[in-house]
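Recap from last week: sequence in, structure out.
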Amino acid sequence: MERFDTVVVGAGMAGLTCARMLADAGRDVVVLEARDRVGGRMLTDRTAGFPVDLGASWIHGIHASPLWELVQALGLPTKEFTVGSFQVGGRPMEHFDGAGRRMDAEASAQWTSDVQAVDRELVPVIARSSPGDSYLDVTERALDASGLSPERIDEIREFFRHRVEEQCGAWIGDLGAHGLDEDAIDGDEVIFLRGYDELPARIAAGLDIRLGTTVTRVRRSSHGLVVSADAAECTAKTVVVTVPLGVLKSGAIEFDPPLPDHVAGPIERLGMGVFNKIFLQFPERFWQDDSYVIRALGEAGERWHSWYDVSAISGIPTLLTFAAGPLGRHLQDLTDDEIVTDVLMALRALYGDAVGEPIAQWVTRWGQDPLAAGSYSYIATGSSHQDHEALAGPVDDNLHFAGEATWGDEPATVGAAYASGHRAAESILGHPVDRAAFAAAVVARGARPVG
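Predicted structure tokens:
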């Protein structure tokens, strides 16, 4: 039986960050990863000759972002693309009304103003909400007090529903009233011109990573911890579990003895959303050259409502749309072609015959991936921001948890995963780890091939 100072379960951003910091401090660390690659929910497809990020895509706000500092230190090329936060305006957008008619500048400006006004009213409504209230409850109260016409209220109601789907991968009635409290972007958002998975690949260089190794049990005793993976076992002084919340909720890893309530409770209460991507490449552009987003409102956008222009990555006209929440779960049972046909029908209702047949397509199904069991965490009704932090543990001072679901400031982001891995490493070492020194060490090890 192999013995280590620390066993890290999962080679996503949190696990790799933690393992790298511990290894750099001289600890004997192994990373056990069930997949045949590192990166977890950071997955880049390069089979077409250019990167397509099927998992994480954005840094959501680069101002005072430790993740952005790391990306800059590594020299990873990015492009400003500030719409990942499902903004109502602020960037060039093509808006279509509920009948599928293009809205002029004045109508778009009025729409943006109306949503912003209701959002301002929503802040005190959320502050006055009761435990157990959903985001649906508080948005309905704000809409009732808006004084807008019934037609406009219906369109804003639809916008709020889609915002929750895209931000949380959940139905608006399942999100807690405070579920979007942290939904603030500080600075520009960026996407990655060479693919996001270059980041975990660089951190992973030189680590002892056992791919294709599925952890099934973590046993705690007075003598340390025993980690069972496939047919083998190893022991460690400390263990850091960084698998997605969906995997923890599924019970795929047995904890013996069972986790105490201060960790098991958050696992049960927090939600795991589904957020799937559909990329479509076209022979030629049919939307405006300067548009970041195509957005359909009301009935025209009931199902497919937002398409993002990500052509800059490949140089080929490309739109990205999302199937999230209940729609995302439903569509996972359809074929790729059935999904794409449905998306094209919605686009042609806006642009007619100008929409050509796609020359390439990519469709994800994160909810059906047993090693993710969803896309990212959210604050379900009955849970709170404190549940994110409580999930980190530790248990018995030697079993730690990390990952986006354990970081309350900005859950559901790569930045959260990075920060949580840093926190776990510092907790185990008992002293701070300087991020600049960590970045410099990653740079010094050089590039690692990706793809």
